[in-house]
Specification:
alpha/beta; five-stranded mixed β-sheet; Uracil-DNA Glycosylase, subunit E
Length: 254
């Protein structure tokens, strides 16, 4: 009985093996698809494959570098380049460009981060809400805003309204170039971005004392205080800004 069972099992294995052999399973597994039920049919997919499976080499296209634009030493020429959209630091964040405001020579120079949206609409840094508040602030310590030179680190406005920190170094160099042109007696930095870019200090730390900028053979006293737009958003800070301006008026020769 046991031998009969072994015989039946052997015949079953042979039957299954024979069926798979007829179906085409008589070789090792291939990476290409095989029609197991069409024995003898040529594999069309294999014939269409290219002889080489190596990808074609990609030739990198090298973009020619643009010639470096020489920075003018005349503030009016610099303003013209800014308005024309020239590739200057801070002049490529947006499509609207706004140069500095004020005379070419000034005793006090103001530096902030970016123009406000309404400044572009009015084509002036001094006529918008921030400008009007700054005018009153400066008037309170006996300074006429129209006699100051006000420049922004970026002459266009990033869509976020904030300058990326990776741009600070180039913008600081460009601003120092403008300070050298204007040669003011003192500088007021408005806001944390201007403070960090030009002094390397956070606003609240820089506010504690008058700092200095050393460039082009001159040393300038520098006051750091809040940007007017910050005071508009947070009126409680106006008292601190007033103390900053009083310190500036007492210790700088203006």
């Amino acid at each position: 009985m046991e031998q009969q069972g072994q015989f039946n099992a052997s015949r079953m294995v042979e039957s299954l093996s024979g069926w798979w052999k007829l179906a085409g399973v008589d070789s090792a597994v291939d990476e290409l698809p095989v029609n197991l039920l069409d024995v003898g049919v040529r594999n069309e997919t294999a014939d269409k494959l290219p002889l080489s499976t190596q990808p074609a080499p990609v030739v990198a296209k090298i973009k020619p570098s643009e010639p470096k634009l020489e920075w003018p030493t005349d503030i009016e020429k610099l303003r013209e380049l800014i308005v024309s959209g020239a590739p200057l630091p801070g002049n490529g964040f947006g499509t609207r460009h706004l140069p500095s405001a004020g005379p070419s020579k000034a005793e006090v120079m103001l530096v902030s981060d970016v123009p406000d949206e309404e400044d572009f609409d009015r084509a002036s840094l001094t006529q918008g809400t921030s400008g009007q508040l700054l005018r009153r602030m400066m008037h309170a310590i006996g300074i006429d805003l129209d006699k100051c030179h006000w420049a922004t680190l970026a002459t266009t406005r990033p869509y976020t309204g904030e300058i990326p920190e990776s741009e600070y170094a180039d913008l600081a160099k460009f601003m120092l170039h403008q300070i050298e042109i204007i040669r003011p007696g003192s500088v007021i930095l408005l806001g944390s971005t201007a403070s960090f870019a030009l002094l390397g200090e956070e606003l609240m730390k820089a506010r504690q004392n008058l700092g200095n900028i050393n460039h082009g053979g001159i040393t300038l006293p520098v006051l750091t205080t809040f940007h007017p737009r910050t005071l508009i958003a947070r009126p409680a800070l106006k008292a601190q800004a007033w103390r900053d301006l009083q310190m500036f008026a007492k210790r700088s020769q203006v």
